[in-house]
Write a structure and sequence with these properties.
Immunoglobulin-like, disordered N terminus, 43 strands
Length: 691
């Protein structure tokens, strides 16, 4: 910025003084080349004297910055005066006040340099001609011992004017100066105070002419954000906040907006700050990866220049983890559950928040959400059909429902969820130097081995901590007392009964049911009962009946289906159905003539060639069906017996039994024999003989 920068006040005036100095080109040793404190006039305007023309600011002790340089020419060059609208009253005098004006100069500011404005350059005056200069501290002036006649003029302006007559000549003795007052009056609308105003003051002598640019800077808001905000070392995957108290020391209300990049955020992002007010701004640092992070916080105001605050942070892993990273749960019967515990240890100074996730990374979660959203999409054929039929209301309703479901998917934290393994709690906090116990429940649905991995996303750790879960489901333990029944050789057509025993050796009820056989031989068996429930450690006898009409060996498997068991309980029955095979050792028994009173006994063997025992019953088909015949010894003892009657045999209805078989019944073992004796005694002379 160039020129005098006067104080701006609403409907007020600002007055600055220019000091004219006489002498040769060079630098003066005194410090009179700086702006002085503005003086108040009776109307509230501020008067600010300045040294004119060619006043060079003095370098302060310890100040290494180059002094501003002014290019002079015989026609146009002249000194430059610095000032600022809104310069605080009572600012320091001498080099200190010039320093403030110089620092606020846009050419001296960082923003001014960013826009390409050059530094003011130090003027070089020829020692061969008299110049208008201002002596200052550290300056050496070769002053010509002549009095300079300087004429001060300024073009007409609605805002700037000279205090006093225009075009007056001032005599400036060697080594002296003259003060010229300039009045700035931005009267009118409020917008005039927000604008920058420009003008110039012309100082001419008999040999040269100097133009002094004058500029009045409009009101500006000022937000005192720091140049740098360093978070130093912070835990990864954790929010660290710092609060700034921002003031507005400017002279205009500030409407600002804040913007930055991840992993930094600032809130509130927008706001309004009146003159002299202060507001808290929170900057949050939430890194998701370890390492150094650096970005800038841009502060944009509706008026004035944008400023930038450098944000720094370093993220690292903290001493937070699980006591074990794999859990093998006990073997568990179906419909029952078991559990084990693990512990989260927080050995840091932060409060760690944890969540159990189903995926190892956020990228995998994002892909899963994309798949779920894609599944919600309606088939293009249906959408095209609805468009053709102009069912626009239906499409709008579908779009609204789709948006709702999509929003739900996007807001889903994707916590761990499984039908077999359950983790409690799924999320929570662990205080500094504390521990949290996590329970894992296992409830199998089938008799198999289950494996699953749950991931713990926790503050202070960059990667999610894996927890490998393993469990095995057990079916009801139902067994047979004997898995195989050998019936051996059985006779065709005979009925046989057997018994099998079902035993429940598990800890839960075992419902069972017989699967009906589908073979012809299997249909010869009957089971009782065919279904039921056996309590833990209980027994269930199964009655088995068998009768077959076909011969041959057989082997049948019968299956009992047990609830929740992938494999049934199997009973194997084997056997051999055979027929009867009997014969006598002789073809017949011949008693010939048997005398009365002399009984006779003949014998033979009944031989069985069957592989099974045979029960037999013997009789003589031609023998009488009546009473047993009278023995001769009994007849002799009884003289009155009717059989002694003279003549023929006494009438009787049935023939008496003449033969006695011993044994008449019995069982012959397989491939065995039995001796059979037949006794015969004639009790009547007329009894005929038969074999």
């Amino acid at each position: 910025m160039e020129g005098i920068h006067p104080v701006s006040e609403a409907n007020g005036r600002s007055e600055r003084a220019a000091m004219l100095c006489g002498g040769r080109g060079g630098r003066s040793r005194d410090g009179g080349g700086s702006l002085t404190r503005p003086a108040q006039d009776g109307r509230g305007a501020a008067a600010a004297p300045a040294r004119l023309p060619g006043a060079l600011p003095a370098a302060r002790s310890g100040d290494t910055r180059p002094a501003p340089r002014v290019q002079r020419s015989r026609a146009e060059s002249g000194p430059t005066l610095w000032g600022r609208a809104g310069l605080p009253r009572g600012a320091g005098t001498g080099g200190q006040q010039w320093r403030r004006g110089c620092e606020r100069c846009p050419r001296r500011s960082l923003a001014g340099r960013a826009r390409g404005r050059p530094w003011p350059r130090e003027g070089r005056a020829s020692e061969q001609r008299p110049v208008l200069g201002a002596p200052g501290a550290g300056q050496r002036a070769a002053v010509r011992q002549v009095t300079q006649l300087v004429k001060v003029t300024m073009d007409s302006s609605p805002y700037f004017k000279l205090v006093g007559p225009d075009g007056v000549c001032h005599q400036i003795p060697p080594g002296s100066f003259c003060t010229i007052n300039i009045l700035f009056t931005p009267e009118g609308s409020k917008s005039l105070f927000l604008q920058d105003h420009f003008h110039q003051l012309v100082c001419s002598s008999e040999r040269e002419k100097v133009s002094v640019p004058i500029r009045a800077i409009g009101a500006r808001p000022v937000l005192d954000f720091p140049a740098q905000l360093d978070f130093s070392s912070c835990p990864v995957n954790h929010s660290t906040q710092k609060t700034l108290l921002v003031h507005n020391p400017g002279n205009l209300e500030a409407c600002y907006s804040l913007s930055t990049e991840s992993p930094f955020t600032a809130s509130p992002a927008t706001g309004t700050l009146d003159v002299g007010e202060a507001k808290q701004v929170t900057v949050e640092y939430h890194p998701l990866q370890t390492g150094h992070h650096c970005t800038s916080l841009a502060v944009h105001c509706d008026r004035g220049e944008d400023t930038h605050t450098r944000l720094l942070g370093k993220a690292k892993d903290f001493n937070i983890g699980l006591d074990k990273y794999s859990l093998e749960l006990d073997k568990t019967y179906l419909t029952l559950s078991s559990h084990r515990t693990t512990t989260i240890h927080n050995r840091s100074n932060i409060t760690a928040r944890f969540q159990w996730k189903a995926f190892a990374t956020e990228a995998e979660e994002y892909q899963q959400k994309i798949r779920l959203c894609h599944n919600l999409s309606r088939p293009p054929q249906e959408i095209a059909k609805a468009l053709v039929m102009k069912r626009y209301e239906e499409l709008d309703l579908y779009d609204r429902e789709l948006e709702k479901e999509t929003a739900k998917i996007e807001a889903d934290p994707m916590l761990f969820s499984d039908d077999v393994f359950t983790i409690e709690p799924l999320e929570g906090e662990v205080g500094p130097h504390c521990s949290a116990e996590i329970k894992v429940f296992f409830k199998p649905r089938e008799a198999q081995v289950y494996r699953k991995v749950a991931y713990c996303s926790i503050s202070g750790r960059e990667t999610r901590l894996p927890l490998h879960l393993t469990g095995e489901g057990l079916e009801p333990c139902l067994q047979l007392s004997s898995e195989e029944l050998d019936m051996g050789k059985v006779l065709v057509g005979e009925a046989y009964s057997y018994e099998a025993m079902l035993v429940n050796k598990g800890a839960i009820d075992a419902p069972f049911e017989l699967i009906p056989p589908t073979t012809a031989r299997g249909s010869c068996f009957t089971f009782r009962p065919q279904q039921g429930i056996i309590p833990p450690s209980g027994l269930q006898p199964i009655q088995i009946s068998f009768s077959s009409t076909s011969l041959g060996e057989f082997k049948e498997e019968f299956h009992f289906n047990v609830a929740e068991c992938p494999k049934p309980v199997t009973l194997t029955i084997r056997g051999h159905v055979t027929g009867l095979s009997l014969h006598f050792s002789t073809g017949g028994l011949d008693f010939n003539d048997v005398s009365f009173g002399f009984p006779q006994t003949l014998s033979c063997h009944l031989i069985s060639t069957s592989v099974v025992p045979i029960t037999f019953h013997l009789r003589i088909p031609g023998d009488g069906q009546g009473q047993p015949s009278l023995r001769s010894s009994d007849q002799v003892k009884d003289n009155a017996h009717p059989s002694w009657e003279k003549g023929t045999l006494a009438p009787c209805q049935e023939k008496p039994v003449q033969f006695t078989i011993t044994p008449s019944t019995g069982t012959i073992p397989s491939q065995g024999s039995q001796e059979i004796r037949v006794w015969e005694e004639s009790g009547h002379t007329w009894v005929s003989r038969w074999g």
